[in-house]
From TrEMBL:
Belongs to the major facilitator superfamily. EmrB family. The chain crosses the membrane at residues 7-27, 47-67, 74-98, 104-122, 134-155, 161-181, 193-213, 225-242, 262-286, 292-311, 323-343, 355-374, 458-477. This is MFS transporter. Pfam families: MFS_1 (PF07690). Residues 9-482 form the Major facilitator superfamily (MFS) profile domain.
């Protein structure tokens, strides 16, 4: 049941999680500035985001064990301390290796925050009120990464890139101090030990898949680094799952997929995540590369959608408690499918306002779908499985995001390449005389821009079909209650 003290803990945890998630997208727009300032290659600077994601992917599967072993207070303070140390070092780093190391320390702290917050929400509120609680969690999960590019664009335009870390440092330290004095939960000593082989297999499995898929967009699928790490990741993951199923106390419990509604919600979330990343990646590509809009204005374009998601998340939570997941997810995904389809019709004349409206309505649809689906799945698990459910959800979100990114960037690149070839053939066939070098340069630039636009539009069309798969799956959603917590009067409620 919910306790008065739970709200204080939740506020501290939510602010900590907000800062940690905000930091994951804050650096993306700053990468060109860091490349220039530190005199490094673009492929090298990408490790600031790839390394952060890899550490998250390796750490998150261990959080189920950490949550069962240690108290919320100890875990939160450790996570915020790691995050604060990483932020301070990154803010003063003058060389890339130190900056990368600091970023990975940040990621180690950040990875613990999300599963910890989700688990506290699940244990602090009864099933019939979890929708409202998870709505608040959705506010953090959706708003923080969405506002990151806008905030980052403004800071980079006015200050040095190090200000991104200096801005976060006092907030992180403040949350750490509040947590130290306000968090007072105690936990009996639990005699469980982590299996070292499971940690190694998990790190190779999830880390390999994340690195392979996230590198495919830039390196290409034929790169030995890509298919090599994907192969190692897949084999390690199979061995990891096999080992977990045989263990009496697994590091990560895969038997939770025996609960049909959790398995369904995980599947829909994976598909929806893949579709969601199309907007986060393709819209900045369109605005900056095709239309030449500044990074700050590109980030600003996404702000109304982010604010709408933040506003809607608690509202959706309350609606979930009343109506269940199926109707909310169906309406939300229908909106997502329609708006994603219209985003596949972008042109060189599409107005800035038109993109803002489409992206905002799409964000509205996403906010109606994501948290209800995830909450319904977690509600189907027994209380003792909550740490495993939250760890599994967060791990799958990381991997599906990487797969979605790799898939859609590959689709875009291949379509752009074939489109450029067709456009060049057509252009050359219309010429009546030998073009000058200047004319050829202008023609190639125009064709390159048009081909990129064709690639982005086709990628959005593929994303429409991916979202449509998630929409079809919502038909099978039923209202979920853990067997031991199912209230008698709730049994007659429909999905």
């Amino acid at each position: 049941m919910e306790k008065k003290g739970s709200y204080g803990i939740l506020i501290i945890l939510m602010v900590g999680a907000f800062i940690a998630i905000l930091n994951s997208t804050l650096l993306n727009i700053a990468l060109p500035s860091i490349t220039k300032d530190l005199g490094i290659e673009t492929s090298t600077v990408q490790w600031l985001t790839t390394g952060y994601m890899l550490v998250n992917g390796i750490m998150i599967p261990t959080t189920a064990f950490l949550i069962r072993k240690y108290s919320v207070r100890n875990l939160f303070l450790t996570a915020m301390l790691l995050f604060s140390i990483g932020t301070i070092i990154a803010g003063v780093a003058e060389v890339f290796p130190l900056l990368l190391g600091a970023r990975m320390v940040q990621a180690a702290g950040s990875a613990i925050m999300m599963p910890l917050l989700m688990n506290v929400l699940l244990t602090s509120f009864p099933v019939e009120k979890r929708g409202s609680a998870m709505g608040l969690f959705g506010l953090v999960m959706m708003f923080a990464p969405a506002i990151g590019p806008t905030l980052s664009g403004w800071i980079i335009e006015h200050y040095d890139w190090r200000m991104l870390f200096h801005f976060i440092t006092p907030l992180a330290l403040l949350v750490l101090v509040f947590g130290f004095f306000k968090l007072r939960d105690h936990k009996e000593k639990v005699d469980i030990h982590i299996d070292k082989i499971s940690v190694i297999l998990s790190s190779l499995g999830f880390g390999g898949l994340l690195y392979g898929f996230s590198s495919a967009g830039s390196k290409g699928w034929d790169s030995p680094w890509v298919y090599g790490t994907l192969f190692v990741g897949a084999i390690s993951l199979v061995l990891f799952i096999t080992r977990q199923l045989k263990m009496e106390t697994p590091m990560l419990e895969f038997k939770i997929f025996q609960h049909p509604m959790f398995a369904l919600s995980a599947t829909i979330s994976i598909v929806l995540n893949m579709a969601m990343f199309s907007g986060m990646i393709l819209i900045p590509m369109y605005t900056q590369t095709v239309r030449g809009i500044s990074p700050f204005d590109s980030g600003l374009l996404m702000l109304p959608g982010a604010l709408l998601m933040a506003f809607m998340s608690p509202v959706t939570g309350k609606l979930f408690d009343k109506f269940g997941a199926r109707i909310l997810a169906s309406i939300g995904l229908l909106i997502t499918v329609v708006t994603t389809y219209y985003l596949s019709k972008l042109s060189m004349e599409t107005t800035y306002t038109h993109i803002i409206i489409l992206f905002s309505i799409r964000s509205f649809g996403m906010s109606m779908s994501m948290m209800p689906i995830m909450t319904n799945g977690l509600n189907s698990l027994p209380a003792r499985m909550n740490p495993h459910g939250t760890a599994m959800n967060n791990t799958l979100n990381q991997i599906s995001g990487a797969i979605g990114t790799a898939l859609l960037v590959t689709v875009m690149s291949n379509r752009a390449a074939s489109s450029a070839e067709e456009l060049m053939t057509k252009a050359m066939s219309k010429l009546t005389s030998q073009p000058t070098a200047e004319m050829m340069g202008q023609m190639k630039a125009q064709i390159g821009t048009q081909a990129m636009l064709d690639g982005i539009n086709f990628s959005f069309l593929v994303s429409t079909f991916i979202a449509a798969v998630a929409l079809i799956l919502t038909v099978f959603i039923k209202r979920a209650w853990p067997a031991e917590e199912k209230p008698v009067e709730k049994k007659k409620q429909t999905a």
